[in-house]
Design a protein that fits this description.
Strand order of the largest sheet: 1-2
CATH topology of one domain: Dna Ligase, domain 1
Structural class: mainly alpha
Distance between the termini: 110 Å
Number of strands: 6
Number of helices: 13
């Protein structure tokens, strides 16, 4: 009789243990399955060496989760919660605690992006970088030549030496590391284009190729025209004709450019005024994109020596000066009627 009672008590105790364990497991799972109390995406930085309890304390301080006994139990039942990587992560509304810790465990950090457009200048890049969110600023005290030195560039000007692209970066990356990537990317593209250049191209170095590409970039945004624009400048260089391209004049005017080019500007001697100098200007005038670089390396085979805007989004290309003058008159008529 006593033995039966003892067995019954043991059975009851085992049942209570099992029920208690089930309740603990259910409550803990419910806790980690609860969405965080956030209404908008939040950036959260996990410092090196941070552990589960420290992060939970921060979540509680921010009001994202309620203080709960189940928070202390969770890592025992779900040890993967303790495997956390350092970095900055974006937490989205609706994410559960388990999903957030899975994100912290994955190491897939939040990244910002910055886009540098083709034809932009280094001055524009600097302004854009200085206003970029979550980018550590280290270059503000330095001028262009100092930055070039830190990039390992032998020239004092960086114009044309950075590839305009969209770059992603982690929170806390430096502005210098971003420029290093753009510099390496430009070196790779330039080398590819130089190796695939047309025979007898009238440029002697990859740097001169970039100068030509920058002019092409500033002259047209129409993809289908780039190689024809390139052919005009290549034909002129081969014949020893001046390039006579307005974007170089504008670049040489610097801050004096007010949106208009006057006759006196075309006569004023600057290193970049291709109406008065022979050949290419001394440096690129902008950051050319990959398409413009390859257009410079592989221009179309044409007899064109002139082009002018049509006023309709493209350009009219001409072989002779007489044809060009007629195209200019047509363009002026279009402007007059607008």
């Amino acid at each position: 009789m006593l033995k039966k009672r003892l067995l019954g008590m043991i059975s009851v105790m085992m049942m209570l243990v099992l029920v208690s364990a089930a309740i603990v497991m259910w409550q803990t799972k419910a806790f980690i399955s609860t969405p965080l109390s956030i209404q908008a995406p939040q950036l959260f930085t996990v410092p090196a060496g941070a552990h589960y309890h420290r992060i939970m304390g921060q979540f509680e301080d921010k009001g994202w989760v309620d203080e709960s006994v189940w928070a202390r139990v969770a890592p025992r039942l779900y040890p993967e919660l303790t495997r956390i990587q350092a970095g900055t992560f974006q937490i989205e509304p609706g994410q559960t605690l388990a999903q957030v810790f899975a994100s912290l465990r994955s190491g897939q950090q939040y990244q910002d992006v910055i886009t540098f457009v083709e034809g932009s200048t280094f001055a524009e890049w600097r302004a854009q970088i200085q206003s970029a969110p979550h980018l550590t600023q280290t270059l503000q005290p330095w001028d262009e030549s100092n930055i070039a030195q830190r990039l390992g560039v032998s020239r004092k000007k960086l114009e044309g030496l950075l590839l305009p692209e969209t770059y992603s970066y982690d929170v806390g990356n430096t502005d210098l590391s971003l420029l290093q990537r753009a510099s390496r990317a430009m070196e790779e593209v330039t080398q590819q284009a130089w190796e695939q250049r047309t025979d007898d191209l009238p440029v002697d170095t990859p740097y001169e190729l970039l100068i030509l590409a920058s002019i092409i970039e500033k002259e047209t945004a129409v993809v289908s025209e780039r190689k024809k624009v390139a052919s005009v400048f290549v034909n002129r260089l081969r014949r020893g004709m001046r390039l006579q391209t307005d974007p170089t004049v504008i670049y040489g005017m610097g801050d004096q450019y007010d949106g208009n080019i006057r006759k006196r500007d075309l006569r004023t001697h600057t290193p970049y005024n291709t109406y008065v100098i022979n050949g290419l200007p001394p440096t690129p005038i902008a950051m050319p994109g990959k398409a413009a670089i390859f257009a410079a390396a592989q221009p179309a085979q044409t007899d064109y020596y002139y082009f002018v805007a049509t006023g309709k989004g493209g350009h009219q290309f001409s072989t002779t000066l007489a044809e060009h003058n007629r195209a200019v008159r047509d363009y002026l008529k279009v402007l007059k009627n607008q």
